[in-house]
Amino acid sequence: MKVEINRARCKECGLCIHNCPKKCISKSTELNDAGYYPVQIDDEACIGCGICYTVCPDGVFHVLG
Amino acid sequence: MAATRERKVPALVDKPMDFCPGCGHGIVSRLIMEALEELDQLDNIIFPIGVGCSSNLGAGLECDRLHCCHGRAGAVATGMKRVSPDTLVVSYQGDGDAYNIGIAETFNAAYRNENITVIVINNTNFGMTGGQMSLTTMEGQKTSTSIYGRDCSVTGYPIRFPEIVAREFPGAAYAARGTVTNPANINKLKGYIKNALQAQLNHEGYSIVEVLSPCPINWGLTPVKAMERIEKELIPYYPIGEFKKRGEEQK
Amino acid sequence: MAEMMKGNEAIAEAAVRAGARFYAGYPITPSSEIMEYLSWRMAEVGGSFVQAESELAGINMVIGASACGVRALTASSGPGISLKQEGISTLCDEGLPAVVITQVRYGNGLGTLFTAQCDYNRETRGGGQGDYRCIVLCPSSVQEFVDLMLPAYELSEKYRIVVVMMGEGTLGQMMEPVTLPDFVETKRTPWALTGKYDYKKIGIFERDSRKEAVELREKYAAIKENEQRWFDEGVEDADYVFVAYGVPGRATLGAIRELRAEGEKVGLIRPITAWPFPEKAFAKINPACKGVITVEENATGQLVDDAALYIKKTHKDRNIPAYALTYVYNTPPIRSIKADYHRIKNGEVKEVY
Predict the structure, then answer these.
(1) Cα–Cα dist A21/A43, whole Å
(2) Closest chain B residue to C46 measured between Cα atoms?
(3) 3-class SS at B126?
(4) Which domains does chain C have, with CATH numbers?
(5) Do C311 and C286 form a contact (C-beta atoms < 8 A)?
């Protein structure tokens, strides 16, 4: 895993999905407590570039480095 | 891409906040904290916070902060900085707070060249109260108080405050406008914020960074479409870039 | 040794000696000399002075300085203090101490430049939005004003409340012999914002107004119990007790002493705290008292409301009438107060309550 996801923070805005260069982020199918479908990352495709971290307004991502 | 580096939200701002999905506030507040972290100033910062969506930052920050009356952050910041000249004072305000109700305080803090940093989140409306027209609303933009679109012949034209600072206040240290529309612009914006903070640390004088920021809910757009609107409609009127740099003579 | 000083300048110097190290304000007659004096004096003592763009900005700069733990001051009058109310309410809400001087001038709206007491209700009832009070001190001489500056800061920090020094135009403008107090050592308040977040202030969305209400009631009860200040003379056996504060309080003291010498059983309560109102002084009033008489520099009678309330509270079994002598503006002369007293005694003046 290259990027950790804080599911509780995600508000489903989709900016990470839109900006991900590898298109490896998608919405999951299980709601979080706030009522959003938080994003999930395809670890195989992820290159850990950190763009999701950069564009996320809600601190969902932790790039492990 | 080779080895990745760790990237983590600084602890001071690592809390859930009540901003709407796709709102730019969350990005900007994180950038400010990253800049403070890189300047090693996380234990030397006071935020006078404006009224409006910017108020949400009051709950999200684990550091010294004070909620100011609507529009008065420029004056509160002045009082703070005058008695604590070695502590960073960064006002965090929206366009309605800084430019509508607070234009006197914002203008005069810049005019006096207070050694403070002003961050203005410009989302071209009063977000918190339901998207009313503000001084930065674009011509023709529909808001809840300009339902047929802003008619600048009776409301005046959208204000470009950082340009005023750069042009009219010779002593001011730094004026820039950035945006959060894509990773490149976000990285650029962080550089602007860092430059502004560095100017204050150097006691160079007043610094302001305005941020073109999306308000998807009040604009009636998805977060991605809201970012597109900024690039297509806002940036042509509100250019991004540094209008006055640290240590430079007036242009 | 006492030296002749202009009121506003003596007051400004006393503020510096009481530890004030920040001033922000806007010029307005009859308080401007305070800021003129501090414009150069603050720099001499290592303090800060800002000539603000407005009264609003001035009080908000005071908020900033107070939040950082520095003794802060602003001064104004009539309409200027109205503009400051937003900030005064905010200071009280945030529990930030500050001293606000008002050299009251007469009139509604823009008003006039005459010395007056027309803002009693505003100062004693909070004045701005919300549910708060300020401690209101109302000195009657330049010396008393000077002597109250340090207690003003101490009270404002003890209770984390705004202290309003309710003067009058006269107190700012006249010259009197003054002995200035010594300098106190300055230090920042323990709850100051330092940039290090060592005082864990909670955010506005985490506050609990119901819990705070309990604390607020306790705080105000403690202030009422402990901080009443007044001067009284001859109230225990008085047929009529005058109630007057500030410079009219001094004139009234002259009047009651002359009336006493002429055989009239009159007394005086001169509040030094207008809030908390000196209820304890009223408890001393002769149970057989025939009336309380306020002497006021306003048109409609404001102090009389409090005088009537508290005489009712302390003399529950009797219905003691409350009269108001309202001289609109300018300090009433002793002879006017004496003449009007006789009109009251002769039944020519209707009681207010």
Answers:
(1) 14
(2) B83
(3) strand
(4) 3-226 (3.40.50.970), 231-345 (3.40.50.920)
(5) no
Is the pTM above the cut of 0.80?
yes
Whether the CB-CB separation of C245 and C138 falls below 8 Å is answered with yes
Calpha distance B220→B229 (Å, rounded): 11
| Cβ contacts of C322-325, under 8 Å, gap ≥ 24 | C322/C291, C322/C292, C322/C293, C322/C294, C322/C351, C322/C352, C322/C353, C323/C291, C323/C292, C323/C293, C323/C294, C323/C349, C323/C351, C323/C352, C324/C293, C324/C294, C324/C296, C324/C352, C325/C293, C325/C294, C325/C295, C325/C296, C325/C349
What are the residue boundaries of the structural domains of chain A, listed by start?
Answer: 3-58
Grade residue B3 by pLDDT with cuts at 50, 70 and 90.
low
- The residue of chain C nearest to residue B56, with distances taken between CA atoms, is C205
B79 and C201: CB-CB below 8 Å? no
For the domain spanning B21-244, the CATH number is: 3.40.50.970
Q: Residue C79: which of C46, C52, C55, C53 has the closest Cα?
A: C55
From the CA of C193, how many Å to the nearest CA of chain B? 6
pLDDT in tens, B114-167: 999 999 999 999 999 999 999 999 999 999 999 999 999 999 999 999 999 999
Listed by start position, the domains of chain B span 21-244
CATH of domain A3-58: 3.30.70.20
Helix, strand, or coil (residue C101) = strand
The interface predicted TM-score of the complex, written ipTM, equals 0.96
Output the CA torsion sign for C295, C301, C306, C312. Answer: positive
CB contacts < 8 A, A to B, total: 80
Q: How far is Cα C306 from Cα C292, in angstroms, rounded to an integer?
A: 11
Q: With contacts defined as CB-CB under 8 Å, which chain C residues touch B115?
A: none
